[in-house]
Specification:
It is a single chain. By secondary structure, this protein is of the alpha/beta class. The protein has a six-stranded parallel beta sheet with strand order 1-4-3-2-5-6, sandwiched between helices. It is globular and about 55 Å long. The termini are far apart.
Length: 281
């Protein structure tokens, strides 16, 4: 596996692969990799001739009071896992390489509307940072396809919208959330949980399952939301949001919508956990 922080080396290698007529898949990450990330790389290997992975902790998507400095950085372990999974190029730029003029002078990409909902409301500017870095990485890597986990469902829709709106020739694939045996969605931020909190954290998925069953049975949305929020609070969570939305637009669910997504964010100890569940009715 080639590991480089240099843009010219990245571009030269990808150009050589494309010159051969080969396809390139891309998996952007912030490192501290878990089984969910590796599943993306393995799926990328099945769908393309070559796989590029980036590790970059993007300062633009962190708020002033968020965990940028504390975000876990585990490059050696990540590199080993990526080699074993079949990645061929690992791009590891620094903030100075990605944002040479600094964040204040950086051109940014913003996807209106969808970026202001849910996590965008709780974390102002977050999705502007996500869209900007993903767009920049797409321009650097020039992949044929890019893979993202569905755990970050809103992020996935933001990126799909950006690609469509900017006419980027990249296929975006969403890959099913990988979960621990308890049902807890795998996340780098699970490392902030104590052993006791990790047991409690399984209640988040159980709450989503309860909501899905109630939706399919035709119970009123307001009643479902009230019961579900009570479940989380009684388990020890501090809910941020718990919403049922249209799975394609993230607009509030209408009675005529058949494809829905339940989205949740809740604090447990030091961790802010997010999860979602697709529902057809």
């Amino acid at each position: 596996m080639i590991t480089t922080a240099r843009i010219d080396e990245l571009r030269a290698q990808v150009k050589a692969w494309h010159r051969q007529g080969d396809t390139v898949a891309f998996v952007p990450t912030m490192g501290n990799l878990h089984r969910g990330h590796i599943t993306l790389v393995e799926e990328a290997r099945r769908r393309a001739d070559h796989v590029v992975v980036s590790i970059f902790v993007n300062p633009m998507q962190f708020g002033q009071n968020e965990d940028l400095a504390a975000y876990p950085r585990t490059l050696a372990a990540d590199s080993q896992a990526l080699m074993e999974a079949g990645a061929e190029l690992l791009f590891t730029p620094t903030p100075e390489i990605i944002y040479p003029k600094g964040l204040a002078q950086q051109t940014y990409v913003e996807v209106p509307g969808i970026s202001d909902e849910l996590c965008g409301h709780s974390r102002p500017g977050h999705f502007r940072g996500v869209a900007t870095i993903v767009c920049k990485l797409f321009n650097l890597v020039q992949p044929d396809l890019a893979l993202f986990g569905q755990k970050d469902y809103q992020q996935l829709l933001v990126i799909r919208t950006m690609v469509e709106d900017l006419s980027l020739p990249i296929e975006i694939l969403g890959i099913e959330t990988i979960r621990e045996a308890s049902g807890l969605a795998m996340s780098s931020r699970n490392g902030y949980l104590t052993a006791e909190e990790r047991v409690t954290a399984a209640t988040l998925k159980q709450t989503l399952d309860f909501m899905a069953d109630a939706l399919i049975q035709g119970q009123p949305l307001s009643q479902i939301g009230t019961q579900a929020e009570r479940m989380l609070i009684e388990a020890g969570f501090k809910p941020d949001y718990l919403e049922v939305r249209n799975a394609h637009t993230l607009a509030p669910a209408a009675a005529t919508d058949s494809e829905l997504v339940i989205l949740a964010a809740a604090y447990l100890g030091k961790a802010r956990l997010i999860d979602n569940l697709l529902v057809k009715r």
